Amino acid sequence: MSKTFVGMPAFPKNAAKAVQDSQLRFNLRKATRTIRNKRALVVGELADWPGLRQAGKAIKDHTLRNLDRYLIQLEEAVTAAGGHVHWAKDAAEANRIVADLVKATGETEVVKVKSMATQEIGLNEALEAEGITAYETDLAELIVQLGDDWPSHILVPAIHRNRAEIREIFLDKMPDAPPGLTDEPRALAEAARLHLRERFLRAKVAISGANFMIAETGTLVVLESEGNGRMCLTLPRTLISVVGIEKLLPTWRDLEVFLQLLPRSSTGERMNPYTSTWAGATEGQDFHLVLLDNGRTGVLADEVGRQALRCIRCSACLNVCPVYERTGGHAYGSVYPGPIGAILTPQLRGMSTELDRSLPFASSLCGACYEVCPVAIDIPTVLVELRAKARHPRAERLGMAAAGWVFTRSVRLARAQRFGGRMRRLVPKRLPGPMSAWTDTRDIPDIPRESFRAWWDRTEGGTR
Amino acid sequence: MTSRDTILGRIRAAVAGAPDVEIPRDYHGPIFPEGPADASLIEHFAERVRDYRATVHIVPADEVPAAIQAALSARQADRVIVPEGAPAEWPPGTAGESLTPAQLDEMDGVVTTCAVAVAETGTIVLDGGPGMGRRALTLVPDYHLCVVMAEQIVPGVPDAVARLDPVRPLTWISGPSATSDIELNRVEGVHGPRTLEVIIAT
After folding, report:
1. Looking at the complex, does the CB of residue A168 fall below 8 Å from at least one CB of chain B?
2. pLDDT tier, B180 (very low <50, low <70, confident <90, very high otherwise)
3. Pick from A234, A265, A297: which residue ends a domain?
4. In which element (H, E) is residue A297 found?
């Protein structure tokens, strides 16, 4: 991707534009409905799902509480197994480490397995600046990369594209696309297979992320579907994995929980087609693990917000969110869109831009995301917490201060209610000035002639 | 100060004073069934593998070599990899240890054993042991035929995790390679083997 999210306007502006795109809304509606139903079916198959969910939550919380200890244990295990461990405070340092490792091999091309962490740090752009070309190999990532587009979903970055659009992109940007290419998903997958085959077979360096790292054994775990992950993890001589420090699990046994939670929550399958696990340098490879902080320790310091670090990037919360379904992922201006993005992005990046301040408000607080989350992240609670931290518009602050003044004394409230009752016919349907931001999307409730409290006093609770 | 020290220091400051958490294990753990797998477990596994649009045969153990031969003939697979350590009575093949990725790509298929199989999810797991070989052998050829012994089938994921060695390179395979990247519909056949065939030996 050659594009970045820097300088994007706030969520409401992006959303207002996105909902006008009827093709986008149709694509999203179709895709999210499909995946929601699939997920519900396979989650319903497991009678012990609530128990797995609670275990998943607790394992992550325990790991985060003892993250320093487990990271050191992981480092020892990976090193003992012949791997090299690097630590990166931020994106710049991680990109520097990876670029230097690639240069040390003398190669100028790398193949990549889809990884949220490397998208977050803008690794492809950083490598490009160093003269290294990174080829995305996941089908959806390929569609995004070829289309010079932005990812709009954690699991399926090209969810906003339908088959006809994908066919267009392939014919346009893939020199080896078969001329008679149809928009059949099978034909499109076949075109991607042919396009990447040679590249896989000659690749010398691969870059991946990981879904889990096991502290006890130094094992890394990658879940995938297409086999592009296996190609990258297995064939090249050098493997570099960039992984967020929160991806840790203490013991091998903990996988029995997450290998059930993740596939069912993400693609709605009992199991994804391929899962690879390896510890250190495997089958003669050079293996480098880059442990990435990039704001995660800041999130960890927030007592309420730290639960966002439990996230296993399944994207069930995106698929179920009524806001995401209508706006799509681009409106969030981050590689992490949807409900989890609305709490993760402002915590990772800080709330210094208008866009990042607006993200905690990109929700109706309906709570569907919390319900489907396999590690029980209470997203609505974190959203409310972040809203309190965001600087609110002046008109809203004044209004809230005035309301606070009225509500703290019952005499003031009674007086305000009497006044409102008398003036009720004079209240306009739309408020003037900055208050119009409120009434643009809402009706002002009808003001009753008499308040409930006044009625109660007058009639002694309806007895007179 | 190294980045390692900085990150560890930030973590310690961030969680200082936070309470630790007990991990509840209120879910179905490993079962470790006694004796050979019963017929219903075998059928459950077969049904789940078929769900991924893989072909499944259930045959008596002594008919496995013939079943392999029949499957290979049906596909007209001549250049076949049979990794080191596979049972001697299986049809012969190339061990494949020294083949380059490009050479592997010219092979018609690969026949392997497995380490463990999961009934609940229709998954087979390879660990590089006898008859499985290195990971590329079951990745590059377009056809994978896997022989599962009935006693290798376990009920659920926790059973498989308990039986496997975390230090060995593992590959968990659930059906042929697939993608859900186009309109979130599953399509079989991308970069891994596009055809997966499983023989269950009882």
Report:
1. no
2. confident
3. A297
4. helix A296-300
Looking at the partner chain, which of A35, A235, A274 has a beta carbon nearest the beta carbon of B101?
A: A235
Q: Kindly state whether A257 is in contact with chain B, defined as any CB-CB distance less than 8 angstroms.
A: yes
Q: Measure B188 CA to nearest chain A CA, in Å.
A: 8
Cβ <8 Å between A137 and B120 = no
pLDDT at A4 over 80: no
pTM: 0.92
Question: For residue B169, which residues of chain A lie inside 8 Å, CB to CB?
Answer: 276-279, 282-283
User: Is any Cβ of chain B less than 8 angstroms from the Cβ of A412?
Assistant: no
Q: Could you give the ipTM of this predicted complex?
A: 0.96
Predicted local confidence at residue A286, as pLDDT: 98
Question: Do residues A72 and A210 share a domain?
Answer: yes
Domain ranges of chain B: 36-201
CA atoms of B71 and B88, how far apart (whole Å): 18
CATH architecture designation of domain B36-201: 3-Layer(aba) Sandwich (3.40)
Domain that holds residue A49: 11-297
Which of A265, A297, A329 corresponds to the end of one domain?
A: A297
User: For chain A, how many structural domains are there in total?
Assistant: 2
What is the C-alpha separation between B57 and B46, in angstroms, rounded?
8
b/e per residue, A40-72, with b = 16+ CB within 10 A?
eebbeebeebebbbbbbbbbbbbbbbbbbebbe
d(CA A38, CA A31): 11
CATH of the domain at A193: 3.40.50.10420
- Residue where the block lists tokens 């493997």: A239
